[in-house]
Amino acid sequence: MPEPAPAPLAPSDPHRLGQAVGQLGMFSKRAGRICFGIVGALLDGDEVVDVLVQGRFGGEDGVAVATDRRVLFVNDREWKPDVQSLPYVHGLVVKGWQNDRTASLIFEFEGRTTTIEQIGDRELAQRVAALVRTRVA
User: Which of 54, 63, 79, 98 has the lowest tally of Cβ within 10 angstroms?
Assistant: First the structure.
């Protein structure tokens, strides 16, 4: 079944961040609240969010956001959040696993590994992985 067409960009949500957050479950929305604000401040002016997941990144509540140009990782570490950005380039590999409750995504690029784990919305984790693989190919 094809994905529905994305909604047009709204002046109040030019990155479609709110639309992506709306796909999360209640607990993920609550746990990612601080990270969503940080992500909104870090996105480029014309960058658009395709899908995101909430889990644990760098030992804290965090998010992985797949946009039209990169994967952005942010956590809510007090005073100095961890932020990492991976572009869609040849050599970026994403691996995933899941059990009956959570999923994890492992991104490998140039000898570095970035992991977001304890993702409660497993279907969204699968969408992130598929999107990244498609954009890298």
Answer: 79
